[in-house]
Sequence to fold (229 residues):
Amino acid sequence: MSDLTFLLRVWLPDRPGVLGAVATRLGAVKGDLLGIEIIERGGGVVIDELLIRLPSIDLVDLMLKEVGLVEGVSVEDLRPIEEPFNPDVDALEAATAIVQQAGDPTLSAGERADVVCRAVHKALRCTWVAMMGTDGLLATCGSPPAESWLSAYSAGSLDALNLTEVADASEMPLDEGSDSIVVRLPNAGLSLVLGRENLAFRHNDRRRVAAIARLTDALPVLAQLPSEA
Fold:
């Protein structure tokens, strides 16, 4: 059987040596640590996503047991990954696609909105994405909730992007993760609503989608999108 790749999301005490202890446990079960991303930290806790390769699916339970033996460490999520990814590169590629395609004035309004939804869907590993205008749904990717829910959620949600930088992030409380978020495109009068199944959006996710949204909103052609499909 060929090697299998997994994305492991873990909560660790924010102190030296803990991540090294986790890596040692992974090595003990023949796990190959391919990548690490700190997706949020605060209040003495770090949330990491670890990209791991295992030689056999039979080792998954043993790996989880070994990781759980490290003091203070808890597993939030484990899911198989078909191919390795780089979140920052994916966000950059999404931004490039939006500039090259959604800014094309020869495309219809629906096609431009669809480009944005598909780019965000891939970059943020979303289950679904929807673009909302003031009068309704413009485009979707994946299988979003009903338009009535999207409209209510979009209208009732504050911009859920807290991008404040502080000198010592370890003193901040962890943000409350959410499996759906809204980001505004004020110049275009639009909103992007994102959802993920059983995996909360964390601080780094929100920073990436905020950056993509700011770039998207800066494209003059998007201001021509109609308020209804």
About this structure: Residues 87-102 form the longest helix (16 residues). The domain at 4-81 is CATH 3.30.70.260 (Alpha-Beta Plaits).
